[in-house]
From TrEMBL:
<dbReference type="GO" id="GO:0008409">
    <property type="term" value="F:5'-3' exonuclease activity"/>
</dbReference>
<dbReference type="InterPro" id="IPR020045">
    <property type="entry name" value="DNA_polI_H3TH"/>
</dbReference>
<keyword id="KW-0540">Nuclease</keyword>
<dbReference type="Pfam" id="PF01367">
    <property type="entry name" value="5_3_exonuc"/>
</dbReference>
<comment type="function">
    <text>5'-3' exonuclease acting preferentially on double-stranded DNA.</text>
</comment>
<dbReference type="GO" id="GO:0003677">
    <property type="term" value="F:DNA binding"/>
</dbReference>
<dbReference type="InterPro" id="IPR002421">
    <property type="entry name" value="5-3_exonuclease"/>
</dbReference>
<dbReference type="InterPro" id="IPR008918">
    <property type="entry name" value="HhH2"/>
</dbReference>
<dbReference type="GO" id="GO:0033567">
    <property type="term" value="P:DNA replication, Okazaki fragment processing"/>
</dbReference>
<dbReference type="InterPro" id="IPR038969">
    <property type="entry name" value="FEN"/>
</dbReference>
<protein>
    <recommendedName>
        <fullName>5'-3' exonuclease</fullName>
    </recommendedName>
</protein>
<dbReference type="Pfam" id="PF02739">
    <property type="entry name" value="5_3_exonuc_N"/>
</dbReference>
<keyword id="KW-0378">Hydrolase</keyword>
<keyword id="KW-0269">Exonuclease</keyword>
<keyword id="KW-0238">DNA-binding</keyword>
<dbReference type="GO" id="GO:0017108">
    <property type="term" value="F:5'-flap endonuclease activity"/>
</dbReference>
<keyword id="KW-0255">Endonuclease</keyword>
Length: 303
């Protein structure tokens, strides 16, 4: 199980009121509590024996911005860095401390987003693999042949959607391995991808189904017999420069250099005393206990 940690802890932060989860000193721990409870639910219901939590070591990599300057530009703080709620930022180190005490591996890579770490692990780790995220871009990682699925948590972990290739096609009308081309055509305001003006999901899906990818679409634009409607040809031609780079921006990296790592999910905390200290300091006794119970009661643990 590959966890998109930022996706989950952002959802936890906005899903649980700060007033409902505070440490003894009054510090909000809503993101921490929600994240730990999400992990407990996933472990209890999906029963993985391996897990890695991927982190954003670079939320807006320079190589993506060089290709498309608008990439996530709307989320850039005036002083630099990502716009993140002030009360969420200090909770991330607490999450990392708790995961370390538990013995659950966390991993990031300089110059890459968590998505890229997840993508690389999805093709290098033994199958089956379940990727957990609320990020639509990760639909492109679904691979029935390799046994890679996306557990999409856009509506929360309790309502996760277990997506294989059939589910991706039913949802968007394209195969999973063409999702990046589809998304580049359609656009994604949440990532600063403008898309092609006047091309929505249905038209984007039709284009991908007919031509296969954006490179083939651009090649067909130069063929008068390709059969484009005049208006659509005009729109695509006007967006040619954008379309030449957008798929590279959307496509998740599958070749991030990663160090050797331990993926086995523990059945007991790696550092019980440290975990107890963190639970007491941050008022996390309940979530910690639920997570420990989920770890201890997996079939693998019983065996």
């Amino acid at each position: 199980m590959l966890i998109d940690a930022p996706s989950l802890y952002f959802r936890a932060f906005f899903g649980i009121p700060e007033s409902a989860a505070r440490a003894a000193d009054g510090s909000p721990v809503n993101a921490v509590r929600g994240f730990l409870d999400m992990l407990a639910t996933l472990i209890r219901t999906r029963r993985p024996d391996r897990m890695v939590c991927a982190m954003d070591h670079d939320w807006r990599p320079d190589w993506r911005v060089a290709l498309l300057p608008s990439y996530k530009a709307h989320r850039l703080a005036p002083a630099g860095g990502e716009v993140v709620p002030d009360t969420l930022t200090p909770q991330v180190p607490v999450i990392l401390d708790v995961l370390d005490a538990l013995g659950i591996t966390t991993l990031g890579a300089a110059g890459y987003e968590a998505d890229d770490v997840l993508g690389t692990l999805s093709v290098t780790q033994p199958a089956p693999v379940e990727v957990v995220s609320g990020d639509r871009d990760l639909f492109q990682l679904v691979d029935d042949a390799r046994g890679v699925r996306l557990l999409y948590v856009g509506r929360g972990v309790a309502k996760l959607e277990n997506c294989d290739g059939t589910a991706v096609r039913a949802r968007y009308g394209v195969p999973a391995d063409r999702y990046a081309d589809f998304a580049a055509l359609r656009g994604d305001p949440s990532d600063g991808l403008p898309g092609v003006p006047g091309v929505g999901e249905k038209t984007a899906a039709r284009l991908v189904e007919r031509y296969g990818d954006i490179a083939a679409i651009l090649a067909a634009l130069d063929d008068p017999a390709a059969g484009f409607a005049p208006g659509l040809r005009t729109k695509l031609t006007a967006a040619r420069d954008y379309l030449a780079v957008a798929p590279k921006v959307v496509r998740v990296a599958l070749d991030v250099p990663l160090p050797p790592l331990r993926t086995e999910l523990p059945t007991a905390p790696a550092d019980p005393e440290r975990l107890l200290e963190l639970a007491e300091r941050w008022n996390l006794a309940g979530p910690a206990r639920r997570l420990l119970d989920a770890l201890a009661t997996r079939p693998q643990a019983a065996a």
